[in-house]
Amino acid sequence: MTNLRYIILLTAMLVILLFSGCEQDLNLNDYRNSDIENMLVVNSILNPDSLIGVSVTHPYFFSDKHVTFKPITNLNVQVAGESGEWEKLLYNGDSGLYLSKQKPIEGELYKINIIESSDTVYSYDVIPRKVAIEKVEATGEGPMHIFWDTDYRFTYKITFQDTPDTENFYFLAIEDDALVDEFSQMGQVDYTADYVFQVLANTINQDIQGWQPDGVFGYPFSDKGIEGELYTITVSEVLQTPLVGMIKRLPRKIKLYSISKSYFEYMVSVLSMDYDESAFKGNLLSLGLMEPTKIYSNIDGGTGLMGSYNLSTVNIDLLQLAGGWPSK
């Protein structure tokens, strides 16, 4: 009985210690670094269809509560194209950006200069030329067992001409394009089979092991190994147990971005850090207070990214292109 009472008492003491440990407050202020917290974080993604815009913020300390990054609104932000003439950008409160009156031109180099007190932050990038999607083909198979016995697989063949005699970088994404009131379904897109994404995986797996392009938002790739070719990318989409009798269309938007080298390097560094791949869906991943060298940055005197892209889009009906729902 004495031993039992001792065990019960010891257990109760351990539980109390565990729960009291969970209640402990940690003071992290000793880890703050004013130089980093006052650093300028500059993000500017240029494309020929939009006015030049520049976001400038400060990093946040990782334990500070925040919802958004507060823009810095009183800076001297300038941009210049190949003419060399600097334009001062005005801050726009609705967008939270310093905006230009001009849209960038493909093939041209653009420079950003930001002056804060006696400090200057600088970057530049070249707007890539558009690479058109020349042809899209699709085939279907099913019903078949993938996850269930009633799944279907559609295979895309997407053809484009890589620009010869230059190093090129791209980003491919396939998205649902159904109308708001349209009954349709978007499946899981598999990018793992094609050569260009295997090259990407080999690059990333130099830093982490076992990475595969098995997300759903799209991936970057380079023209390494396909330089100057008329190349056809093969990707597939799996629909799990679709309501075949009710779905009449499978609208898809195929996007082929020509991206600058800096934008490509940034994306690869994000993937190599094993971030949530939703960083590729929407706005740029915020750098916060991480060491700037761990994620690619081309901002001299600060951190962040100046990148650019040029978009080619094709809208298709996957079901029509594949000749309807396949059957065994």
Describe what this molecule looks like in 3D.
With 328 residues, the chain is of the alpha+beta class. Helix content is 16%, strand content 34%. It has five helices and 16 strands. The chain has helices at residues 2-22, 34-37, 195-204, 261-272, 318-321; strands at 41-46, 53-57, 76-80, 86-88, 90-92, 97-99, 109-116, 119-126, 133-144, 151-161, 169-176, 188-190, 219-222, 230-239, 251-259, 303-317. The strands form three sheets. An eight-stranded mixed beta sheet has the order 5-6-2-1-16-15-11-13. The N and C termini lie far apart (72 Å). Mean pLDDT is 84; it is low at 6-10 and 282-293.
Tell me the layout of helices and strands:
Elements: H1 2-22, H2 34-37, E1 41-46, E2 53-57, E3 76-80, E4 86-88, E5 90-92, E6 97-99, E7 109-116, E8 119-126, E9 133-144, E10 151-161, E11 169-176, E12 188-190, H3 195-204, E13 219-222, E14 230-239, E15 251-259, H4 261-272, E16 303-317, H5 318-321
Parallel strand pairs: 1-16
Antiparallel strand pairs: 1-2, 2-6, 3-4, 3-7, 5-6, 7-8, 9-10, 10-14, 11-13, 11-15, 12-14, 15-16
